[in-house]
Design goal:
The complex is a heterodimer of chains A (250) and B (579). With 250 residues, chain A is mainly alpha-helical. Chain A has one domain (2-246). Chain A has helices at 2-18, 31-35, 67-80, 90-93, 95-103, 134-153, 162-173, 184-200, 212-217. In chain B, the strands form 5 sheets. In chain B, strands 1, 2, 3, 9, 10, 11, 12 and 22 form an 8-stranded mixed β-sheet that branches. A 6-stranded antiparallel β-sheet of chain B has the order 6-15-16-17-14-20. A 4-stranded mixed β-sheet of chain B has the order 5-4-19-18, covered by helices on one side. In chain B, helix 1 (17-28) packs parallel to helix 8. The longest helix of chain B is centred in the C-terminal third of the chain and has 21 residues, at 545-565. Chain B is an alpha/beta fold. Classes of the chains: A mainly alpha (250), B alpha/beta (579). At the A-B interface, helix 1, helix 7, helix 8 and helix 9 of A face helix 2, strand 5, helix 10 and strand 18 of B.
Chain lengths: 250, 579
C-alpha cells in the first residue's frame, strides 16, 4: 500500500506545482473583476465583445446540420441563463457548443440507458418514456419552438423580443405544446438542465468558458485538498482550477 | 453451449462490500473463493482525474449501464410498470467495489429497537399501532448478538467517530477519532444543544487520520476535497472494498477475482444450488461454475432478481401475503428543512461525504410515540459533503427554475443555504414489493425486476413530524428563512433521493415469513447465502452500510460453520411447509 501513498503524494505535489493559488489560501472577493479579462490557460486576451479571440477549433458543430437551428438553440439557452449583472449568459459561456457536442455523443444517443420497447407514455412518476433519443428530442423540440413562434407571433424565434421568447419557452415547460414523439415539458427539462450543465461543468466540455460560470458562483473547481481551510470561519473565495491542471505535461 | 468449469468451494456473485467481506474472511481462513464481478476493475489510480461533476455526478460514470439491465417501476399494482430508462431516484453501482466506491461513508449501527421492531412496538404501543397492512417483523437476531459484527466492520474500515448518547451501545470506541469540527457542524451543535438535543459527529468512512486495519491495509487521511458521493477517492481516504477487503482477500492467494463475469442464473436442483451460470461480457462465452456454497452479494435488486429468475424460494404475493421473495421492499423517507442566510456565507464547496453532525433524539423509539400516528423516526443531520454547482441550485420557494431571477437567486444562495435532513425509517407495507416484470427483458432476455412502491400514511406522518423538527433546528441556527421539505404526492423514480434500497430477501426467525435465517442462509436452500440490505426486514433511520457490513461478517461466520456442520445453522422458530 506504500505505492498508493506515494501516488497520492505525487499527485498532490504535481497539483501544487500547477497551481500558484493553493498555498495562498484566502483570496479577497475583489479579484473577480480583474480576472475576467484574461484567459487562464492560454494567456490570451478577450476581444471587446467578450468572445474568445483564440482559434478555438472546437467551436464548430458536431450535431446540428443547420446553423439556424443552432442559433435558435443559442437564443433559447440565453433566456434560460441570461447575461446579467452577475456575469455572462449561456452564449458567452459556450453553452450552445456544449449542448451540440453532447448531443453528438453518448448523452445524445442515450447509450447507457434502457431504450428497449414497448413504449408507453407512463405517469409523471415513471420518468423518461419516449422512444426518441435525446438528439432526436432536441431536433423535434427546436423545430417545435420555431413553429410555435411563427404561430404565436408570426416571427422566427430568434427575431422575438426576450419576453416573447420567454412566453414560448414557458408554454413548452407547461406542456402546452404538442410535439411528435415526446412531450414539450420533457424537451424543456432536457434543455433547462443541459443549459446549467453547460454553464457549470468543467471547461473541458466546451461550456463554462474561461471558468466564468464558476467565477460567478464562486466555485473553485478542482482542488486536491481543503484540509488546511475547512475549519476557517470566513468564506474563502479561491481562484478556480480546471481539470486541465491535473494533466502533467513534463 | 456453456462450458462447465472445475468446482470451487465458495463463490460470490458480485464483489462490492458484501462480496469483498465474504471473500476476505473466508480466504484468510484458507477457503478457496471465486468472486464473479460483471463490471470492470478500478482502484485509487483510476480516480486521479475524478473531480469532474459532469462526468461522475451528472452522467453517472461509476453507475450501472442501464442499456443492459434496469428495473421497471410502478406506484401501484393496478398500474403498468415501465422501465427506469435513466438513473434518478437511486444510483446503482457497477464495477469492482460496487456502490462501496461511490458511497459517502456514513457508517451507522441500526438500533436495538430496529432488530426487534415488531415485538418492541407491540409491547409498548399495543399490536394495532399501525394496522395489519404494515408487515412489520423482527429480524431474528438481537442487537447484543449483532454488536461484535458491527465492530468488525468498523475496525476493518477504520471508521472515525465519537460517542452518541442516543445511539446503540458500543463495547469499544471507534478505531479513529471524529472528523474535523467546522463552522457548519459547530453551528448545528450549538443549535441542538440550545434545544436540549444531543448532537455528535457523524461516524465516517472518510478517515480523520491515516489508519492501518487489522489486515494490514491502510486507509489514508481525508483531505476534505468536496468530491465524495458519486466519486471514487483519489487518495484512498474513503474506506472502500477496493482499498480494504479486496486486497486482503487477494493477498491470501486463496481468492480468484473474475472480472466482466455476469451471472445470469443460479443452477438449482430443487434441493441445493450447485453453481451459477455466467457470461464473460468481453468474449460472450458462457460458463457453468459449480460451487459448494454460493453467496449472492449483488445488491438488493440482483439478489432478488437472480432468485426469482432461477425459481428459488417462494415469490411474495401481495394479494394473499404469502411467499417471501420480494417481500418488504423498503426505501428511505427524507424529511428536512432548508435555511437561507442573508448575511453569511459558508464554505459549502469544501467537505467530505461523511463530514457532518447529527442528533438521534428523534430516531427509533428514542422519543415517545404514544401521541403520534407513526412509529420510528430517523437520524437528523447536517452534512458538509461538498456542494458542486450543477447539482446545487437551491432557491427559495416560489422562485422559477430558469431565467434571470433563477440565475440571480441560485448564485446568491449557493453559499448561503444550510439544510438539516433526516434519514427517515421506511416501514414495510404489503403493497410495496419486488417481483418479475412480465414484459421487459434485460440484454440476455431475462425478465427485469419490477418494483411496486409508493409512500404510505406512516411515511407521510413521519415526514411531516421530522421536517418540523429539522426546521426548528435550522431556525435555531439563525437562518433568516426556513422552508420545511414536503413529501410528493407519490414516490417518483425521477429525482435523486437516496440509494438506500432494502428488503426482498429478508431475514427473520420464521421460514414462513422470512427468506433467510440470521446467518443470511436461505431457509429453503442450505448452501445459498444471500447477503446485503436485501436482508433488512425494514429500513431503519440511518444510512444502511454499517448494518450491511455487520450482516456480511455474520454471514461469513455462518459460511465457515456451514462447511463444518452442513444443514440449517438456525432452528426455525415455527415449523413451516417447504415449497
Amino acid at each position: 500500500m506504500a505505492e498508493n501513498e506515494e501516488r497520492s503524494t505525487m499527485s498532490r505535489r504535481r497539483f501544487l506545482k500547477n497551481s500558484s493559488y493553493v498555498a495562498g489560501g484566502a483570496i479577497g472577493g475583489g479579484f473577480l473583476g480583474t480576472f475576467l479579462g484574461r484567459d487562464l490557460l492560454r494567456g490570451t486576451q478577450q476581444n471587446s465583445n467578450g468572445e474568445n479571440s483564440v482559434n478555438d477549433f472546437n467551436r464548430a458543430l458536431m450535431h446540428f446540420t443547420r446553423q439556424s437551428d443552432f442559433e435558435l438553440l443559442s437564443a433559447a439557452v440565453e433566456r434560460i441563463f441570461p447575461a446579467d449583472d452577475n456575469g455572462p449568459g449561456a452564449i458567452e459561456l459556450g453553452v450552445p457548443f456544449f449542448i451540440d457536442h453532447q448531443l453528438a455523443g453518448s448523452y445524445g444517443h442515450n447509450d447507457r440507458e434502457y431504450m428497449q420497447g414497448p413504449f408507453y407514455p407512463g405517469s409523471d412518476f415513471q420518468g423518461y418514456q419516449t422512444r426518441l433519443k435525446r438528439h432526436e428530442v432536441f431536433d423535434v423540440g427546436i423545430k417545435g419552438i420555431e413553429e410555435e413562434s411563427r404561430k404565436e407571433f408570426d416571427s422566427s424565434f430568434t427575431g422575438l423580443e426576450g419576453d416573447q421568447q420567454d412566453q414560448i419557452l414557458q408554454k413548452f415547460q407547461d406542456n402546452d405544446v404538442a410535439l411528435k414523439g415526446v412531450t414539450s415539458s420533457t424537451f424543456f427539462e432536457l434543455l433547462r438542465s443541459a443549459t446549467l450543465e453547460g454553464a457549470y461543468s468543467d471547461p473541458l466540455y466546451g461550456g463554462n468558458g474561461n471558468m466564468k460560470g464558476w467565477l460567478m458562483k464562486e466555485f473553485p473547481g478542482s482542488y486536491m485538498s481543503y484540509i488546511e481551510e475547512i475549519e476557517e470561519e470566513e468564506f474563502i473565495n479561491k481562484e478556480p482550477q480546471p481539470l486541465r491542471a491535473h494533466i502533467v505535461s513534463e | 453451449m456453456a462450458k462447465t468449469l472445475d468446482k470451487v468451494e465458495v463463490l460470490t456473485v458480485g464483489v462490492g462490500w458484501t462480496g469483498g467481506i465474504i471473500a476476505a474472511e473466508l480466504a484468510k481462513q484458507g477457503v478457496q473463493v471465486v468472486g464473479l464481478e460483471r463490471g470492470k476493475p478500478r482502484s485509487t489510480e483510476d480516480f486521479q482525474h475524478v473531480h469532474d461533476e459532469y462526468r461522475y455526478a451528472i452522467r453517472y460514470e461509476l453507475m450501472q449501464d442501464l442499456s443492459r439491465e434496469t428495473i421497471t417501476f410502478r406506484n401501484h399494482r393496478d398500474e403498468r410498470a415501465l422501465p427506469m430508462r435513466q438513473l434518478g431516484s437511486f444510483l446503482l453501482g457497477e464495477g469492482l467495489g460496487g456502490a462501496g466506491v461511490h458511497w459517502n461513508g456514513q457508517t451507522w449501527r441500526f438500533l436495538p429497537y430496529d432488530l426487534q421492531i415488531k415485538s418492541k412496538t407491540d409491547e409498548k404501543y399495543g399490536p394495532d399501532k399501525l394496522g395489519a397492512d404494515y408487515t412489520l417483523q423482527d429480524w431474528g437476531i438481537t442487537y447484543d448478538e449483532l454488536e461484535p459484527y458491527f465492530y468488525k466492520f468498523e475496525e476493518m474500515a477504520g471508521i472515525s467517530g465519537e460517542d452518541n448518547p442516543n445511539g446503540a451501545p458500543r463495547s469499544k470506541p471507534y478505531p479513529t477519532p471524529p472528523m474535523k469540527e467546522t463552522p457548519i457542524t459547530q453551528r448545528f451543535k450549538d443549535a441542538a444543544n440550545n434545544l436540549d438535543l444531543h448532537p455528535f459527529h457523524i461516524p465516517s468512512g472518510n478517515l480523520s487520520e491515516s489508519y492501518e486495519n487489522p489486515d494490514g491495509q491502510t486507509v489514508y487521511q481525508c483531505q476534505y476535497c468536496g468530491f465524495c458521493e458519486r466519486f471514487g477517492c483519489e487518495y484512498g481516504a474513503k474506506s472502500s472494498p477496493n482499498v480494504t477487503v479486496i486486497p486482503t482477500a487477494q493477498d491470501t492467494g486463496n481468492f480468484e477475482l473474475r472480472m466482466h463475469a455476469n451471472v445470469t442464473e443460479l443452477v438449482y436442483d430443487g434441493g441445493k444450488v450447485t453453481g451459477v451460470k455466467y457470461v464473460d461480457l468481453q468474449t460472450g462465452d458462457e460458463f457453468i461454475q459449480p460451487a459448494d456454497v454460493v453467496v449472492l452479494t449483488s445488491y438488493v435488486m440482483n439478489n432478488v432478481r437472480l432468485l426469482l429468475n432461477s425459481g428459488i424460494g417462494r415469490p411474495y404475493d401481495p394479494e394473499t401475503g404469502s411467499g417471501v421473495i420480494g417481500k418488504n421492499y423498503c426505501y428511505q423517507i427524507l424529511p428536512g428543512a432548508n435555511g437561507f442566510f442573508e448575511e453569511e456565507k459558508f464554505n459549502t464547496y469544501m467537505g467530505a461525504g461523511s463530514l457532518g453532525a447529527a442528533i438521534d433524539d428523534y430516531n427509533g423509539d428514542n422519543f415517545d410515540h404514544s401521541d403520534v400516528n407513526f412509529i420510528h423516526g430517523g437520524v437528523a443531520t447536517i452534512t458538509q459533503t461538498g456542494q458542486r454547482p450543477i447539482n446545487n441550485n437551491t432557491v427559495p420557494n416560489g422562485t422559477p427554475n430558469w431565467g434571470q431571477e433563477f440565475k440571480s437567486q441560485s448564485i446568491k444562495y449557493y453559499h448561503r443555504v444550510l439544510s438539516v435532513g433526516a434519514q427517515g425509517a421506511s416501514i414495510p407495507h404489503r403493497d410495496n414489493y419486488l417481483s418479475l416484470d412480465p414484459d421487459y427483458k434485460d440484454i440476455f432476455g431475462q425478465p427485469l425486476l419490477r418494483m411496486t412502491y409508493d409512500y404510505t400514511e406512516q411515511d407521510r406522518n413521519l415526514h411531516d413530524y421530522l421536517s418540523e423538527k429539522c426546521a426548528e433546528i435550522v431556525k435555531e441556527m439563525g437562518a433568516d428563512t426556513v422552508e420545511p421539505r414536503e413529501i410528493s404526492d407519490h414516490y417518483s423514480i425521477v429525482p435523486y433521493q437516496t440509494t438506500h434500497n432494502t428488503g426482498g430477501v429478508i431475514m427473520g426467525g420464521d421460514p414462513e415469513t422470512s427468506a433467510v435465517n440470521n446467518y443470511l442462509q436461505m431457509w429453503d436452500v442450505d448452501n445459498l447465502f444471500v447477503v446485503g440490505s436485501s436482508a433488512f426486514a425494514h429500513n431503519g433511520g440511518y444510512n444502511p452500510t454499517g448494518t450491511v457490513g455487520a450482516l456480511a461478517y455474520r454471514a461469513a461466520e455462518g459460511i465457515m460453520k456451514f462447511r463444518e456442520e452442513n444443514g440449517q445453522l438456525v432452528t426455525a422458530r415455527h415449523s413451516s411447509k417447504k415449497v
